[in-house]
Fold these 3 entries.
Entry 1:
Amino acid sequence: MTHLLPADRRMDGGKKGGDGQSSRETAFTYSISAAGVVNAISRACREGELSTCGCSRSARPRDLPRDWLWGGCGDNVHYGYRFAREFVDAREREKNYPRGSAEHARTLMNLQNNEAGRQAVYNLANVACKCHGVSGSCSLKTCWLQLADFRRVGEFLKEKYDSAAAMRIGRKGKLELVDKRFNTPTPEDLVYIDPSPDYCLRNETTGSLGTQGRLCNKTSEGMDGCELMCCGRGYDQFKIYKHERCHCKFHWCCYVKCKRCSTLVDQFVCK
């Protein structure tokens, strides 16, 4: 999609919504929570933990080779999706805020992000197969529908978080893009209303602890690196002794005896 917007790092605390409750971080939280419900219910159906559902009954994929069997006990993502839609969205649909109000806009935002989380699990589910045959010849294959690893779902939603669309409530009481040059979000996309607070600084209103005093990794270019973690404020360096067990030996029978080693290591802390 082309509706990428730069991540808002700071926000005007004087604006309504300055607590960040309708930020892109909230969007991600709602989406990953809804995805988690779909994932848990779909797997519980397959494992026989629920009396209301069982293995997946999804149709055989058209591109599956004819000599491959379809019908292994797959994750029931269809049931998981429907259950999550009714269960997770119920709280939002019960609200009766005036159309066009800030509260109504937040409800629409939550519903959109809930659906994005469900769509992520549903669309990332794929076909898994197992070989059968004498001496591993794989003369026959049995296939079924299987959920993607939830880490993959999280990574996918993180990408959606990075490209989340900034929205506002329109005249007709619906969410609309702040910048009309970008594409309209699909059900798979995350949306937010308020820019994110500055998580670099401590703010008890938003619940941000800030990064002052946080340990960082001088050599890392990731989120744990001092450059990003310290938000450009710099960092202090000091040395500490790290104590750990070492030179462990197994003694018959039956215990392990170790020495205690001390190593002088560098530590880096955000200013």
Entry 2:
Amino acid sequence: MDPPISHARPTRFSDRAALRAAVEAWRRQGESVVLVPTMGALHAGHLALVAHAKAIGRRAVVSIFVNPTQFGPSEDFARYPRDVAADLDRLAETGADAAWTPEIDTMYPPDFSTRIEVAGLTEGLCGAVRPGHFAGVATVVTKLLNQVRPDIALFGEKDFQQLQVIRRAVRDLDLGVEIRGVPTIREADGLALSSRNRYLDAAERAVAPRLHAVLARIAAALRAGAAAGPLLAEGVAELTAAGFGPVQYLEVRDAETLAPLERVEGPARVLAAAYLGRTRLIDNVAV
């Protein structure tokens, strides 16, 4: 049996100039660079993204930054899990080359006054219940892409609306980075991996997979030609009966434009956001 492959922790950068110097040195050697943006609290889903980055590019950079501008006043910015040392240990399993861990003042100096708004795609779904969220996401991702200057950036499909917003911002601003979505990594019972899953108590964790089960059942019925309206009403009722609440949305949307759909005739997604106790869970399933 071959011995296990061991990797060192990635090189940690907190200085923008030092990061750029390292990336430019790789580029001079003809090496491609793939970025995996994260907010830390890394789990198996993040590690799968980094493994994919190493499979498609020579160098993998992982950013770790809990972005304050995408949290609302009553959201969980203060309690969002942070443990950079543990994150770096986990990244050693993946062979990641660099970790970009900027401070808040590096990302947002005291006189910072610019933000990026993406119209259309940010209306409805998470955009309706988290005002300003996607402006914070689009702004910080644009900054990360400009700081790292990767060839490719990877994002999980669990945050599907976010993925589409980032794709549109990159296209509209001619950033010259390829944005790729990677399928959601799930637990064996279907629950989408998320840093927020650690907030669930044992009883809530047992209920949480019902969210994916409801989405999968709706997607199957839509593929068979059913109308969305009755399916969504039944889905909300089932989630509420299971203990979710409030169910912020359960909708069927076009996979590219995110326009609402009653019947599916092309690529689409069933998307949901719902609270389980104090924990907000989101998920989506392709149709």
Entry 3:
Amino acid sequence: MPDSNAAAELARIEAEERELIFDRFTREDAWRLGCRLREAAVARELPIVIGITVGRQRVFHSALAGASPDNDAWLERKARATAHFERSSFGVGAWFRAQGRDYERDSRLDAREIAANGGVFPITVRGVGVVGTVGVSGLPQAEDHAFVVEQLRAFLTAQPEG
């Protein structure tokens, strides 16, 4: 049975996905975005890993104090969900919850390989589509997602026009 709280959460996530669009995204942008995420995480003493991909290639990775190899594995699984569904990993899980469905049971995907847990966001370029992923792992999934959204919003706001 569909869940109204899950539907509201999905609507909020979908609005974020529509909002956080790049006009362009280069490897230099990936480096600057990754450094922004890392600086913010260090300042807050967050025990996370940070990863950015362009296409199928990892172009930024950082593991902060307190993060573990398990966080790397979760980041990879969440990035696969984002790449597969071309939406945030939290949005994938929220979509299933809003439909009253269970991702692990109903997606027909191997949840050991593709995780619908929050923390990875698509890098979407206007007029092009999804070109990569940016994400973190190490906090509860809603906090992972919120941190990435906050940092993407700040990064995009700071970008020069054109």
